[in-house]
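pasting for ref
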Amino acid sequence: MIIAGVYSFNGGKEEIESKFGVELREVEQIIATVRSGTHKTKTSLEKTKAGRILYSPSSLNKAFKRGFAKQHWQNHRVHCDYPTQYYRPGYKPVRSAKGAYREMDFVKNRVGVEVQLGKYAFMVYNVCAKMTIFHNMDVIDVGVEIVPVKDFAADMSSGVSYFEQFVWDLEQRGVSDIDIPVLILGVAV
């Protein structure tokens, strides 16, 4: 896999390059490894009814997990105690929210990484909410979001948002005073 696009949200590229260069190089190496390790294997490809060969996001995500694990990056999960005092009188939920959690795909040395290659509409949520939450919980200082560019997303077996759309959304939204620096990497094969 290659890095085809780079977008610096709230100074993310500059912050990561200046303070977290070792971690950035590991992320770049992992992306390159996923390219050589999965794009030619049967498990990373799926054949459609029309005979078109598409990339499997779940297989690619597994390859990323293996790559990050080899470099000692770890998943970070926090338990969520959802508030119930805001329910209106008389309402009682049928299902309990016990066991609810939020997680960051990979964390190392205060750098959080999210990989979004499957059916996710969470790209903007990850940068504008999740990464801020993990920063407020004193887990990360900066973030990296790995997403497909449009050409690559079109060759995946499930619908997914893509780099160009994500950058447009972030540029239209703008930066808030609570946002942390995030580097957005658009990947392709």
